[in-house]
Amino acid sequence: MKKMTTKQLKDMWIDFYTSKNHVQIAPASLVPENDNSVLFTTAGMHPLVPYLLGKPHPKGKRLCDYQKCVRTNDIESVGDESHLTFFEMLGSWSLGDYFKEQAIEYSFEFLTSPKYLGLPLDRLAFTVFAGDESAPRDEVAYQKWVSLGVDPSHVFFLPKEHNWWAAGETGPCGPDTEMFYITDKEPCGPNCSPACDCGRYLEIWNDVFMGYTKHTADGKVEELEKKNIDTGMGLERTVCVLNGYDSVYDVDSFQIAIQKLEELSGKSYHDSEDVTKAMRVIADHMRSSTMMIGDEVPTTPSNIGRGYVLRRLIRRSINYARSLNIDAMKLLDVVEIYIDFFKDYYPSLVDNHDLIISELQKEIKKFSNTITQGYKEFQKAIKNLDGKVLSGEVAFRLYETFGFPIELTIEMAEKEGLSVDMVTFKQCEKEHKEKSRDQSGKVFKGGLSGVGEMETKYHTATHLLLAGLRTILSDTIYQRGSNNTPERLRFDFNFDRKVTREELDQIENYVNKIIEEDVPVVCQVMPKEEARKSGAIGIFNDKYGDEVKVYTIGKYSKEFCGGPHVEHTGVLGHFKIVKEESSSAGVRRIKAILEPSK
Description:
Number of strands: 18
Radius of gyration: 25 Å
Low-confidence stretches: 439-450, 539-544
Helix content: 25-40%
Oligomer: single chain
CATH superfamily of the largest domain: Bira Bifunctional Protein, Domain 2
Largest sheet: 9 strands, mixed
Number of helices: 18
Structural class: alpha+beta
Strand content: 15-25%
CATH architecture of the largest domain: 2-Layer Sandwich
């Protein structure tokens, strides 16, 4: 395979598609235009949606680009082998011009030709749509891959959850074909496929065949007269694969920053797991911060929306710099490296150079002035802690007085084997908002929105997940921590080994069975001792008063809890476990999502 830098791959992509009569278009802003559904541009196709919906593009029917993107659903996962906040996507489009077979031919040529990536065919795998009631099995894509020389055993038919793309509840949609590099990892079993998460198959490219449209949310589709192609390749991940790296942080666009961090800290990137993670987090977050502030539509630190995300990234960077004994102001050296590295592709970084530096200086100074005292407050609180839960009052004081985002407090607590009483935190935040409203006539805008519909659903789903864990694995399992966002739930529990895929499937099925039964969620208020005697479980007993709320979900779950709950399980949708991993010694972590009912 060819060894390649990110710049070389970016240039090669544009050269390839322009040679196929595609017109290069300029990358769009990180701030989506006329779209309030997301904070940032999250995918290469995002700016193209109006044209995929039928609006003529001024540059024609064949387009290509590289696009800056930001995703922040799993900020706390940054620092592992693959998670990033800012990343770049390589894209190409056919708007009512060529369709499925031509798109696959282009993909095959770029992947395998010695002139381009030159990947060995036996190290590539492909997935195509298996078909269902909405659209037929994609025999055209399957036959096209095989006709180009792909071994039929390397082409996998997968269902809609893996090989279907839609713009939303309504609008253009269709099957896709995904391309994977086969690593040296052994198959996880006889049915190992790109649908597994065992690491044997790494996705590097996706061709979406937008040949259908949905007019309503009932799932029914009809064929489009003008069919579109949307392709996307992850830049960092592909360079990682091409060079045989174990982590995306080994690619050149991160190593330039990591080398500077080694110089600033006097430590080696590989000194320890903690040092490696700290350098990765700083490299990622400083890159993202540079891009956000230096965008055509600059984002600056604040307590709401995009500004809050940016502030969180900067403050996490400062926190990790502190762990490496790096003066936070020295992080600006990393920023200068990134501006120079990306300036030829994103000229707004040069135009906004002074803004980037000044905004970061202000935020670093603002946080650094209070961080020492805040850390003392945190350490004092955990030193005097009776139990395993940091009080919501302390968490809110860290947020309000010292500027610690609640996510940072949760992260610091988890490092100490603790959780945070979020019920009390939210109550403190609510009371503070009400006081602010009384004082100023305006609602105080904090960094967190209150408990919304999805958080309520995910909170209820954690009860069902715990019930499933105790039923399938062991009745000695209890909650060891929980963190829910509008996008997913994260649940920690005591268990001394990895949970197998078969066991995870059983737990999923158990939870979905309860959801399908549409069981009522019943709340009772009773004395704590009576709750214990009734069989209600709860590991964080010391945070409750003499009377507690007990939530009963049929015969499946009975817990005392202060969080929000739905009234019956049928509204939760379809429960899906997306990841199981170690959290700490003797503690496992599950991340799961709720999808629309199948």
